[in-house]
């Protein structure tokens, strides 16, 4: 009856462990789906950050949510570790029970040896002693049958313990794999954040360069061009006055030289700005 109760208890524990493993597998599948979603969101965020600065705040919020999710998963890992510790304690308890059963079997064997010695002594006694010995032999057969059943039960329990140990090893490997995946995701988030910062700096430099070019174009290009246009109109009026025409040609030359100088300055500025942007994007 004690062995049957022990078997019933162990079967209930096995069913609980099986349910926990099923729940753990579902949780892992859910986490994998969540990781895939996070990877897709990161790819979309990297593409949109090139052309949309306003999306930065939204992506930062998503990163905060992802960090909370990682914290939640770490909490789940700690719970799984606690469950594994409890399972290990249960295995230690079962091993102790096996040791007790082995000690009881040893005592039973000693008892059988003692009874065999008593049989030979009783053989020299009266017919009543022989009947008593026959009764004891029947009892011994019953005990032998019980010992055979107990040995089979021990073999079955050992097989179940080995299965449970294999399941625990697989669960530990899965936890190690999940930790490695989480570390990879954290590194990818860090690299993406650094790229975003670098892209922001390059974009600010680009906008600054464009503003400088627009300023120079507005203030330095338009003035020489306006001078040349005005002088060309005046040339039409004084085409027959050589002195005035020579002065207008001199003014036009000065404006053309100013325009050429600005063009060179603009070329140097664009070249320096291009090298600066390329250096930062490498």
Automatic annotation (TrEMBL):
Extract the Gene3D superfamilies matched here.
1.10.287.130
Q: Which organism is it from?
A: Mucilaginibacter rigui
Protein's name according to its UniProt entry: Diguanylate cyclase
């Amino acid at each position: 009856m004690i062995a049957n109760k022990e078997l019933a208890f162990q079967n209930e524990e096995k069913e609980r462990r099986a349910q926990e493993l099923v729940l753990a597998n579902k949780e892992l599948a859910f986490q994998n789906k969540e990781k895939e979603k996070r990877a897709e969101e990161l790819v979309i965020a990297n593409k949109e950050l090139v052309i949309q600065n306003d999306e930065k705040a939204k992506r930062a919020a998503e990163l905060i949510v992802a960090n909370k999710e990682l914290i939640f998963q770490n909490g789940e890992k700690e719970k799984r570790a606690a469950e594994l510790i409890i399972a290990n304690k249960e295995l230690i308890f079962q091993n102790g029970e096996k040791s007790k059963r082995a000690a009881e079997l040893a005592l039973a064997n000693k008892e059988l040896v003692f009874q065999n010695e008593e049989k030979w002594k009783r053989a020299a006694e009266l017919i009543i002693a022989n009947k008593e010995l026959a009764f004891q032999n029947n009892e011994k057969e019953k005990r032998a049958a019980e010992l055979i059943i107990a040995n089979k039960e021990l073999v079955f329990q050992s097989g179940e313990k080995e299965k449970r140990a294999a399941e625990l090893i697989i669960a530990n490997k899965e936890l190690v794999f999940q930790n490695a995946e989480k570390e990879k995701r954290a590194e990818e988030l860090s690299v993406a954040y650094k790229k975003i910062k670098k892209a922001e700096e390059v974009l600010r430099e680009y906008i600054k360069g464009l503003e400088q070019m627009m300023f120079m174009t507005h203030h330095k290009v338009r003035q020489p061009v306006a001078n040349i246009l005005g002088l060309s109109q005046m040339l039409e009026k004084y085409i027959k006055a050589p002195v005035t025409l020579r002065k207008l040609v001199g003014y036009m030359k000065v404006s053309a030289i100013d325009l050429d100088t600005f063009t060179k300055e603009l070329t140097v500025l664009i070249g320096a700005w291009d090298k600066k942007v390329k250096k930062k994007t490498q």
